[in-house]
Amino acid sequence: MFKRLSLALSACLMVLGASELSAQNTPAIPGPLQSWVGWVLEDVPNLYCPSTPEGKECVWPGELSVSTTSTGASFEYRVFLDTQAEIQLPGNRDYWPQDLSVNRGNETLEVALIERDEVPFLRLPAGEYQVRGRFLWDQAPEVLAIPSSVGRVTLSLSGREIAHPRMSTDSLWLGDKASEKEVGESESVKATIYRKISDDVPLRVITRLQLNVSGKAREVELGNILFEGALPVRVQSSIPTRVPSNGSVSVYVRPGTHTVEIETITPNAVSELSAPTPGPQIYEPQEYWAWEPNELIRSVKLDGATGVDPERTSLPEEWRQFATYLVEPGTKATFTELRRGMAEPSPNLINLRREFWLDLDGQGYSVRDRLSGTINQGWRLNLGQGKLGRVTDTSEGSDLLITKDAESELPGVEIRKPGVNLEAESRLEEALSRLTVVGWNHDVQSLNATIHLPPGWSLLGGSGVDRMPGTWLESWRLWDFFFVLLVALSAGKLLGWRWFPVAILALILSHGHHDAPTWVWVVLLATLALLRVLPEGLIRKAVIALRIVALVSLAIILAPFVRDQVRWAVHPQVADPQFQTMDSSFGGFDADRSMAPMAPAAEMEPMQEQDEASEDFFAVSKIDSMERGYGGSASSGKKEKKWALQQVDPNAVVQTGYGVPTWSWTTWRLVWVGPVRQDHEIRLYLLGPLANAGLNFVRVALLILLALLMISRRDMTATRSKTMAAALVMLLAGTANAAEPPPIEPIPIQNNANLNANLIPLPSPGTPEGNQLLEELKRRLVKSQECSGECVVVSRADISVRELNFRMRAEVFAERDASWTLPGPADPLTLSRVALNGTTTNQLRREENGLVLVRVPQGRNIIEVEGVLVNRNSLTIQFHADTKPRYVTFRSSDWTVDGIGPSGLPDSSLQLTRQSGQAASDAALTAELPPYFFVERTWELGLPWQIRTVIRRQDASRPQLLKFTIGEQEKVISDGIRTEQREALVDFARGVSVVEFLSEIPISESVNISAPLDKPWTETWRVQCSQMWRCDFSELPRISDVNNGVYEPLWKPWPSESLVVSVSRPDATEGPATTVDKVSYALTPGKRLLQGKLEVEIRSSTATNYEITLPEGAELQRVFLGGAERSIRPRDSKVSLPIVPGKSQYVLEWQQPWERSFKEQVPAVKLGSDSVNVETTIEVGEDRWLIWVSGPQWGPAILFWPHLLTLLLIALLLGRIPHIPVKTWEWLLLVIGLSQVPVVAGLPIVLWFVLLSLRQRQPADEWWKFDLSQLGLVGLTLVAAGALYGAIHTNLLFDVDMQVEGARSSNRLLRWYMDQSAPALAEPALYSLPILVWRILMFLWAFWLVSRLISWVKWGWSAFSEGGLWKSKPKLAVARPRTQTEAGSPVPPSGLEPTRKEHGTLPGVRTPSQEEPNVQRRNTPSHTDVMPSRKTPTAPESTADEPTPFSPPQSEAEDDSKD
Prior knowledge:
- There is one protein chain.
- The chain is of the alpha+beta class.
- Among the domains are: 56-173, Sandwich (Immunoglobulin-like), CATH 2.60.40; 188-340, Immunoglobulin-like (Sandwich); 478-581 and 694-730, no CATH class; 792-925, Immunoglobulin-like (Sandwich), CATH 2.60.40; 933-1064, tricorn interacting facor f3 domain (Immunoglobulin-like), CATH 2.60.40; 1074-1169, Immunoglobulin-like; 1198-1299 and 1332-1377 and 1391-1402 and 1419-1430, no CATH class.
- Helices cover 19% and strands 34% of the residues.
- The protein contains 20 helices and 80 strands.
- A hairpin with a 3-residue loop joins strand 54 and strand 55.
């Protein structure tokens, strides 16, 4: 809405055009808003008044003339008003102005006098006025109240003109100070002196006077109350106070209690203080001193003064915390210096985090250290063990120069900050199981270490470590010992004590492996024990069922465990962690995991970033993700610093290190509680790949043996041994992998917003929209009266001084009605006349800072100023810093000037110095305190050597010019500071309390520093010694070593003391200046050409060239640097890359002739140096059948061949299953074709043969069981057929799954990783055949399978239809009375009795359903076809093989033997 209103107003302004509302330019105002202008500007009545440095001013009280007599005084007051306003008149409630007359030109006005807070005021319209009046009194007061903004004041005392009237903020002094004779008996002054003495350089003393005054207001001389040699620098008082240069303090008192506080300093060294003896007899007989020691400066003992309890004195409350003394005038207090400078520094507090990466070949460690904490002494860290390659200040993101210690010659770095945040990289060339764990030549407060082990390695435990969470030895608890002994002893008791060692070794070796069987042993042993004692019955059957479940669970657990253990022993790069608890961690090469810092978390910020996965090596590699977290690119912007604290010699080579691997596999944490000494040793119990492989095989053998011992046939009489064996064989298959669903990417939503900016009609004022419109009108009106820059520009000022007469002529340009600040203030210069364009003007106004403003109309103006200087040998005239003249000339035969540059540009102040003559007697009457400065000089010893000088002052109310002494060879390089001989002219403008400049000195073996004598400043010295220098200091005591978090020794010298700084340059250690942090070598073979791509990330500290040798016959196509293509061509297969300091990424692409063959080896590429984190990738291609690979250990592993071998072993076992038409060699061929489908897909095929064999030999007796088995066989047949079809379809149409794993490899993309590499990169190879070979083999297999399916289906139909295809539910007949013959016959089986009675079955005759399952029968279409007729049949002849109903039943053993 507001925007629309603004647009409406803008439209109106554009239509109406521009017009002038007053003398000033104002914006065009629409007609409906004309009448609202006064209303909106009601709260800014001074809008059209002239501009001043503090805003807009409409009242210009130009001149006040006061003439006194013994009975009264008359005054004439000239004032100019730009608008109607109220003006303050001289006087107050005690002296009220009388006989007022107000004239405007020749017109006399009748106005009313107004009282505001007992002060007279007049309200007058705009114009120039002359106000006259007088005061009446019997005795002249010493002070007359006047307006504080009067521009110029003249005073005549009884006809005597006062050249320099004394004025305070709002008072004019009319009389002299009172003498003791003039003080009546009822007028008295009582004073008490309190002093706070602060030990410092210089010595600071605050003198506080408490005055109890009675009688009339008057000036009182207090005498010299300051210490000898003390210089006043600050006065704070409730009454007017003067502290002149002669030290005699005077105050203007009035009845009441007043407090005067004067702060002084004593520049020179003080060994004693003597209490002053003031002249007037108005003081208490004793003074109170509060002593504030400064133990950082020195330790002092104070003698000669009487100590008292501060609570029993009238000492100010805030001073009672210090030691208090009672001192009489003339008493001397002496200082005995016990110690000067800082005490012994605190010990260093270093926290260390170490990361060890064991080399893939186990021959050494790469180490990354993170050091944090505080250093207070020594200011250097040395590495005691290993080769230090790189040190980085993580807080600054810069590498440090590694130098040799001058004494021990150990490699290390100079420290220049007490807050240590370093990251160091080093190498341990030998894989030591015994390590000096701290590594650094320094004790540490806390220590944490992380061990990264490559595939095939494991850490059992160690000694010398407080805690090793996750290791095998530390994982043992009392419960684990109890569990192992319980199971082992139980196994020995139940299975025989000869098996006790097997059980206990199997349990010990499988301890900690989360996927090994554990509690299932307890269930198996418990059920075995119960079966030994339970009788036949329901409970025994339940225990047997539980044992069957346990055995099945054991098979399910043990089978994948055995598979993985064997696989990991052969191919450790595809392994999960060999041992893992909650405290250990594991991450494969292809896991995008970052390594977060441990403790202390408060000092170390997050150091990693997680990146999204990509096929690009530089995007997915953990190498990239980790290094970005630790510091980022060297070319990234860094914060500007005042001084390069970590600056190194540009001619020295900063070491970039050997590179640190960034892989993560198995990780182990080592923890220490409390501080650790630098020589502390640890021992690690490491197992290499061979040892771990041997343990895997032993572990598997023992667990399998223990599992076989658990299968006790004699204790499970209710089970069929062959059925159990078949079940165990079928459970040896692996588990299927579950595919994760692809991530759902968010769909970006584009928000297109259209803004309609149509103008709206002008709203009426008074409505809400109209009120907003009026606010916009007010804003524009106010803005129209603002200047585009400074409202006043002074082009030139010509100054001439003759004796004490001051004249100046200035050319002033004003953009609009404004004001210009005249030179001043009134203390050194009293204005006598100000002329504007040749006419005397009284349009003046005094600011709070004492400077006078003159009202300047718009345009070019000539301003002339005349005045009288105070009679002093040196004085300062100041300009306003924003409106000082751009060019100044100075002419005088009596004075010299400082503060005007060679080009005529003045400083904010001019210092006038008398060439001859003496100051007048009234020079002591000045209210100015002598200037004093505090100088802090910092020697920044880097390149180049510089001195930073900071000068401060306490009183910034007036401008000052300081001539500061500099060294002989010191050259000021800062703008705005001029030098004359050995002095720097430092100009302090009004309100400026700090000036800083920079200078340079030549590099030398030592720096001599001295504190000057008899100068109005005190110096403080600091030395910043960069890391490229080693600085030693002379015996002048230091105050401190640290300033603002950096190493900056501090000295506070007394005048004439000196310091010598001896400077030397430590030697740098040898180390590489160029490091290859990671390499990605990618190859894409084709039928005729090979496409090669080499990506290299290089980190360098110098500009150089890096040479890469491409394979023979390679044709370089493109070279990229940081994503931008560069025109670089090879020479003799060598490519020279321009290296710039920092981190750079280079990409080289080439082609070369290539022919596909059985063995394809990676073409040779040679880098210019060793490298780390090297990855080589090869695309196999869709038209190749991968057979085998060779190359570095951490690379692809083809798991298809072990998988196929396992399937062939299973086929050999399946070949021993009887009663099925599949021979062993057929099983072998069948599993070869099924090797490309999941193992579970082959289970329906095996079950189909086994169950059909059982169906043929043992059909179900009951009709419903028979029918259910038939339905199940039909479903199983369909599943088995689908599995076979899937195998044929996969083999003929899809790629060959060779089960490639390791190093993020796949069937089509092979990857090898090396943590460290020589300049010549590894040359892995792959062995492959055309995919057509596989297709032909699988076609032959499919043809064979189809031929065999014909005979297998025939056998399957015969088995499926044996005994019929379906059985109907038998009908129940009505029971009838049995005959006697029937009563004596044997009872037929249940369910057949009614049928047999109905059909007249004779005793002893067996129906087809009662025949043995293995007796051959004729194929009958249905059960009803074999039913006997309703006539009673004759009994068939019995054969010897057919049992009769009276034959004894066969035993189970006989059944088994026949089977």
